[in-house]
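Async update (no meeting this week)

Hi team, since we skipped the sync, here's where things stand on the single-chain job. The sequence we agreed to prioritize is pasted below, unchanged from the tracker. I ran it this morning and attached the output directly underneath so nobody has to dig for it. Comments welcome in thread, and please keep replies under the output.
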Amino acid sequence: MIIYLLGHSGVGKSNAISELRSSRLDIAVIDLDVDCANHEFDWDVVGPLLSQLHATTDDATDLVVDVGAATQTIPEFLEFIQEGPAPLVVITAPADEVILRQPVPGRHLDEFIDTEYTKRQDLFDLAVLTVDVAGLTRQVSARRVVDALLQTFAHDQ
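Output:
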C-alpha cells in the first residue's frame, strides 16, 4: 500500500519521515524532493515517477511517499491524487506557528498562508487523515505522525 504524506513547509514532514525510518524498517520511504531533485515543480519528471511507483509496488509492500512543498503546488499532482491512487495523510498546525519552525528571511505570514494553506486546500481536503501537531515538540509531533501512518496502513488491510 502507498500513502502520500503532505503538509505545509516546516510543519514536520522530514522529522516524521526520520522517525518512521528509524522505528519501522519494514516500511519503505520515497522522498520526492530527493528523487526529483531540481525538478520538484516539473510534472514531466514527478508524474512518471509516481506512475512507476504505483505500477511496481505490490500489495504486500508498505510505502510512504514524502511529498515536498513544491510538488504539492503542481496542478497535475492534484489531478493525479483526485483519481484516487492512494490515501493522503496531511500534517498541519497553525500558520503562525509553522512559519517560525522553518523561517525564511523576508517571507511574510500573509504570503505563507496563501501559498501553504489557501492554495493547497483542495489537495488537503482529499486527506483520509489530518494530523494536527500544534504546540507539540518535534519528537512528539513525529511520533504522532508515524502513529497516524501506521493507523492508515492498518485500516486499509
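Quick observations from my side:
The mean pLDDT is 93.
The chain has one domain: 2-156.
Reply here if anything looks off.
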